[in-house]
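Regression test attached.
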Amino acid sequence: GDSVTQMEGPVTLSEEAFLTINCTYTATGYPSLFWYVQYPGEGLQLLLKATKADDKGSNKGFEATYRKETTSFHLEKGSVQVSDSAVYFCALSVYNFNKFYFGSGTKLNVKP
Amino acid sequence: GAGVSQSPSNKVTEKGKDVELRCDPISGHTALYWYRQSLGQGLEFLIYFQGNSAPDKSGLPSDRFSAERTGGSVSTLTIQRTQQEDSAVYLCASSTGTGAYEQYFGPGTRLTVT
């Protein structure tokens, strides 16, 4: 069935370090892919998205490229900040967006 | 403007009782979603409404779960004869339409079944 697998956390980095959070997916058809973020004490919010192969989503310095050949949508940021500390969720949508599948979330801790 | 609101924020109930969870989406949002987040796990998709219709109810965990939406606005998720494994945070989200639109999430209802 359709699913999303993302790297387990927590991930702990120093400020200005490079970040990669891996996400791979299994899907029938052609899914759209998303990264959502949940900051401490807040609700989930969309970080970025890509709707077709080779698309790159970007926002707030974060990027992810939809790779159909490797069924991946890895999240990257060149230089993390303490304010990036949050839980990051990879997600996909198929079947005309009638269903969404989220990964288990990866907690990121950035230390000053 | 007002975001997605959910009530109650916390609910403790005894095993076997019925509970109703409410979601008020952002005004004008036609699509509404329910998710469940169990401790240490990701979000589990439950059901999606476009207007008042739910095209696919197969995500509901069992026939004890039901959901409805009226007037294209408020939605209620009902769990009958609650079990301890129903304990979780139930999240609601809304969006402006179908497709790859951003979902706006509510704060959730934390349900504890004792």
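Expected vs. actual: identical. The interface with chain B takes residues 4, 32, 34, 36, 43-46, 49, 51, 89, 91, 93, 95-105 of chain A (CB under 8 Å).
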